[in-house]
Fold this protein.
Amino acid sequence: MDVSYTTVVTQRSAEHRTLYIFAGHDRKGRQMGTSITRWEEDLEETNPAADRAYYNVAPGHYYCFQAHATRANKPYGPMQPQRRFVTAAERDAAIVQYLKGAHQRAHQRDQ
């Protein structure tokens, strides 16, 4: 059964950004890494005609993160989509998994 939601962010916590530096360098000699931004947000149902930007996500409280690759400690390339989780533990596990993959990709580029 498909369920459609029309929700907007009604409250968002302060963002916490952490920079992770990997051992490898790209072809231009820049240190590779990633920036992870964490936050919490509340979503409530809304009228799609009243709001221009809304999400097809169930109303509730979410733990979120977004990743962005870095070169020489500066943003590099496109930002990854934000991801929402029902618990902080789920979000933290997803961040660990993301970092493992990002580290592996950085190491492959360093070869």
Q: What stands out?
A: Residues 7-110 form one domain. The helical segments are 88-110. The chain has a mean pLDDT of 86.
